[in-house]
């Protein structure tokens, strides 16, 4: 666990670490495979990466990305779509190649979801696995959309959102009744296979969940608690999110 005075300091730390890996890999001509998250938490990180691209020539042309999740069903251009959000927040501002971007597809037919999920896992494997996985954490302790009860062995799949998660998303959807019931998410096992995992949590409202994830024994009731069993995982917190530790 690393605690920073502010979320800006924390975002800068993570961006620096990612930039270092991207630059080293670029120099050796190998791709960097990033696992990316949505939500308010990684916004500062993406802003800093964009700044590094524009001001310090950070080159994303060999970077390959896999996003954690997408609501289901969800059109790609919908204002709530994580596909659209990633384009607007990060991808349209850097020189990443569209063919290197992977995000679960909320437009596949219900009958084709299982196959889509399998192909998503396969694409991660073909890319050589994830070098750095960025995570936020939901109030239910979810990483991606691995809600309480998600086993450690879970792979990319269709899940039902927890009522707490829907409540937290409600304002963005103008009411809880408009929040999709389901999502496609990378599984806990998929996430745990990343070589390096960074979970960021900022703000007082995250403190109780962070405390359980860090200090309780790993269990299905808090998916993020499984990160304790990962050999290279770090919780990056601001002082407020660390206040219950
Ligand atoms: C959503 C996302 C998660 C994210 C969580 C927390 O449920 N699917 O990936 O970590 O919200 O969001 P925020 O960062 O806005 O607090």
Enumerate the strands of the largest sheet in spatial order, edge to edge or round the barrel. Answer: 1-10-9-6-2-3-5
**In the CATH scheme, what's the topology name?**
Rossmann fold
Highest-level CATH class: Alpha Beta
User: What is the CA-CA span between the terminal residues?
Assistant: 10 Å
Oligomer: single chain
Strand content bin = 15-25%
Report Rg.
Answer: 17 Å
Shape: globular
Q: How many domains would you count in the coordinates?
A: 1
User: Bound small molecules, which ones?
Assistant: 2-amino-2-deoxy-6-O-phosphono-alpha-D-glucopyranose
Tally of individual helices:
7
Tell me how many strands there are: 10
Element order, helices and strands?
EHEHEEHEHEEHEHEHE
Q: Give the class from helix and strand content and strand pairing.
A: alpha/beta
Keywords: Hydrolase
Protein name: Glucosamine-6-phosphate deaminase
Domain Glucosamine/galactosamine-6-phosphate isomerase: 6-231
GO molecular function: glucosamine-6-phosphate deaminase activity
Explain the layout of strands and helices.
Layout: E1 2-4, H1 7-27, E2 32-36, H2 43-56, E3 63-67, E4 69-72, H3 82-89, E5 101-102, H4 113-126, E6 132-135, E7 157-160, H5 163-169, E8 182-185, H6 188-192, E9 196-201, H7 207-215, E10 233-238
Parallel strand pairs: 1-10, 2-3, 2-6, 3-5, 6-9, 9-10
Antiparallel strand pairs: 4-8, 7-8
